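User: Hello! I'm new to structural biology and keep hearing that structure can be predicted from sequence alone. Could you demonstrate with Protoporphyrinogen oxidase? Please show me the input and the output so I can see what each looks like.

Assistant: Of course. The first part below is the input, the amino acid sequence of Protoporphyrinogen oxidase. The second part is the output, the predicted structure written as tokens.
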Amino acid sequence: MTTAVLGGGLSGLSAGYYLLRRFGKPLTIYEASPRVGGWVRSENRKDRNFIFESGPRTIRPVGLPGANTLELVEELKLEVTPIRRSHVAARNRMLYAKGQLCMLPNSPKGLFGVLPPFTKPLYKAVLRDLVTASKKAKLEDESIYSFAERRFGKEIADYAISPMICGICAGDAREISVRFLMEGLFEKEQKYGGVLKGALISRFEKNKTKDTKDGLFAERQPKLYAQALKQKWAMYGLQGGLENLPKAMRKYLGERDVNVQLSNECRNLTFSSTGVRMNIKDAEVPVEHVVSSLPAYKLAPLVKQQHPSLSAQLLSIPYVDVLVVNMQFPGKLLKQDGFGLLVPPVEKLPLLGVIFDSCCFDMGENTVLTVMMGGHWFDQWFGDRPSPKQILDLATSHVQKMLQIREEPKFSRVHTLHKCIPQYTVGHKRRVEAIRNYIKTYKLPLSVCGAAYDGVGINDVILSARRQVEAIPLS
């Protein structure tokens, strides 16, 4: 089968990897930009012993998706840097709220005291869930904010759930689907009448999420996954930066005669009973099947001519812009180590959060921070398109105030990531089902994978590619 992959980000490269494993050659990956990796980008300053990451920097080794990624990392022979659960970056997570840095509880004991920004012990929110009845009419979906407020109270929704959603997808919890992002919790409540009640009951049932076989690892569990379990990794990075993952994937594919074409954008897709014709640089390229890892809004115009309804469905998935500011300060300046801090939207500040990179990984005598701004609130704060210097000054002033740092950063980078994260608004699961059902109904030789459909994390986009490739008929 001649197959083409559109997009050379992590999901597209993963699709290439799994297509090669399933079908062999011929196979070509088309990437519109001059590099692979998509939003994963690392700047390794070896001369000064620090790394700037403008995209993700850590991966969680949890469950089937985590095991799947570790199998890939193992195959590529990449060096990992584990962060164990006992590490300060795994234990300490903070909020900046009510004018102060607040440590989130990291043990059951923390449920019984009153920790700012909360005004009452957190165990009361747990009790609320146990005594609150679920809605009599079963819900198909609702916002994560509404769900959290209903089950645990407004304070939890404002100061725990909302900032967490900022960290996951730079989104507004009042709009994001609980059924898509927290399906397990939502279904427990709908089935058993409460989140905790459902969690306790389901513990006595077979926990399928811990079964890493699932048809993917029939022969053996990945060694790195077994190691992660044994050593209790909370997360891990890659030596030299996370961009080494897409770089290694490209090298692996190239060595096996997979053609990765950079600066080659697909302009149109024309489907027929015999396959697909792709318009690449004004030339018609025929293939039997296309796997698209493109953002939904980029795939939409390619199919609009023949399938305007599918195009409209793809365009119904919104995206947000995020500003990422990397900064390095000489010396160890943080008064409190940890993974970083999140800023609850109720604080009405332009920051989504700050990651303490030099706490997560050894960066010598440097303090390295990554500031994230914008997201759902990008236009509100940055609609007049400020200059990189204005953005840096704004990020620096907030960091200095929040973390009590007096110095100015010695090195910095400002990145505007345009339409980088899809928003899983209420009804998203149904939206994705409709897109895939349309493709199936019209028997289009097209598969769609990536963050728009199956989750924003690195594990999600890699497993998304694998699932979609394995669903392609062998004949």
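User: So the tokens describe the shape?

Assistant: Right, they're a compact way of writing down the 3D structure. Reading them back into a model, for example: The chain has a mean pLDDT of 94.
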